[in-house]
Amino acid sequence: MSAHPSTPVIPPTPGTGSGPRIRLHHLQKAKDEGTKFAMLTAYDTMMASIFDAAGIEVLLVGDSAANTVMGYSSTLPITLEEMVVFAKSVVSGAKRALVVCDLPFGSYEVSIEQAVASAVKLMKEGGVHAVKMEGGAYYAPHVRAMVAAGVPVMAHIGFTPQAEHALGGYRVQGRGDAAEAMLADARALEEAGAFTVLMEMVPTDTAARVDAALHVPTVGIGAGGATTGQVLVWQDMLGLGEGKSPRFVKKYADLRSVVAGAAAAYHREVLDGAFPSAEHEFGQ
Q: What does the Swiss-Prot or TrEMBL cofactor note state (predicted)?
């Protein structure tokens, strides 16, 4: 265990966030040494660049773009082609962070061959460094085939949003006897070659058991502090959404109020004739 658990995986250059590209072995080193890494979603170049410069180690091109960008009520409608577009945008803004992209619903379930083809498309056309796939031990053969094809895979267990209808809605997973099944899933996915296992909405004790049982690092979202990494949707983290946030979200800013205030001020100045003023105009 490291004496400095808050030390970054690779300290960025002070004030710039620049430095060597984060690789899989850096995340593994964090697990081995007891340090941590941070992960945020990103869907466009500008936010990716900001998070990259801030030192965030992993950027997730999440299928949550279906909700946060496209306005759908679930992640299910987003397509592989749309994920490629978001991936390209994020990759262009990330100079240091490892970029992981979700395999969207319907892009890997049909067959192992479909999973490999979809993952290769995200890497070839989207330029990402790894993919993330939801599902338990059933998908271990898919993970093994993708890894064999040269695609690093982050596994995602616990609450898996693509299976929300099968799971009965947004519910905590891995309680009671279900903890053993989750542990078995995690072990199977690690054995298949997953470089990381992400757990969503899982009791802290269950997540800690899974983390202790695995050699590879784990990432948590609503899974307590035992995991090596933590991930949040950036719009949640910066308070851009409206309504009640999930229990596991901490708001580090109230961006919705800031943006709304700025838009209202702009609207008012346009109507009042205060904008544009002389300083914003061109002379002869």
A: Binds 1 Mg(2+) ion per subunit.
